[in-house]
Request: fold
Amino acid sequence: MSSNGRILIVDDNTKNLEILANILNANNYDIEIGINGYEVFNWLKSDTFDLLLLDVMMPDIDGFEVCSKLREDRKFDLLPVIFISGKSDSQSMVRGFEVGGQDYISKPFDHAELLARVKTHIELKKSKENLKTLNANLEQRINQRTKELNVANQKLTDLGITKDRFLSFISGEVSTPLVSMSKVLDVIKHSSESSRMAEMITLLDQSVNKLERVSEMASFITQISTTKTSTDKNSFALINSIDYILMDLNEAFDKKDLELDIDIDDKMIVYGNNKLFKSSVQAVLSSVIHAIDDNQLIRLYSVGEKNENYLIIDAHINCLQNDENDLAEELSLYTSFSQTIMAMNGGAFSIKTEDQKSYSFKWTFKNY
Reply:
């Protein structure tokens, strides 16, 4: 039968030692004994115990002082100490708990009570040790998992950097020759007299335009992905950002003879990353300009309410003249970017479609 626990009994009275040892041995406890307080420290240098039964009144060093010194060493925090003493006054009992004892039994003691308290404190010690082991194992597993996640995150970061560099490279490599091709096509279109040649040039022109949009899209993706974690946020006037965007798109508006109706409150303030906000709005406007018929109206206006401000773009797009799948894909892509950007800046973005002809793009941001 396995032992119920190892107990060190310390008492300068050999009769008391004999009585305690007999009781505990009879109940399957392993016993070691000491006859003075200093023997406690000698035993603990080379052995471990589940419980210390400690007499209070001993020569040289009493039980209270032994327990107090014991508690100075953290490795004995879980070792329970039960004082056994002929002193039963409340002051002595309080003193025993103050120096770190777990229990106090007055002499003469009841055998059954002694065994019950010994069993309780040993079981409590073993439970605490098990919990400590479980916590240590859990902490080790958490640390290991954290290291694994850090490695995985670093790989994702490296992959993201590589992707951004690739997109940037593709955007630059595609856009430069496209500009030259567009200029050559403009010259050819105005000088061509053959209807068949004009038809081929139109197809080529459409392909070049699509490549330009792909290049532009890659550029926007790069801008957004490389700055999405930026903490560079500040307050800026909405009208200033819109003016900057429209200046950049002025040629595109003129090319299709588009009419622009602007009604934006010059006092409306946005808080966030200005660069991301402008990239998002410009991406959507570029897609709208591409899809809308010539000589149409695009409305940009702001709406201010008590707690929120809105920037709204209204455009009527003839889907019959466009590849609806391509158009929907472009708008969906730019919408996703704008939703992400506005969420980072504490706002929102939405798109509303009416009969697949009227598109309304809405940026929402809190009042500041």
About this structure: The chain has three domains: 6-109, 143-226, 228-368. The mean pLDDT is 79. Residues 6-109 form a domain with the Rossmann fold fold (CATH 3.40.50.2300).
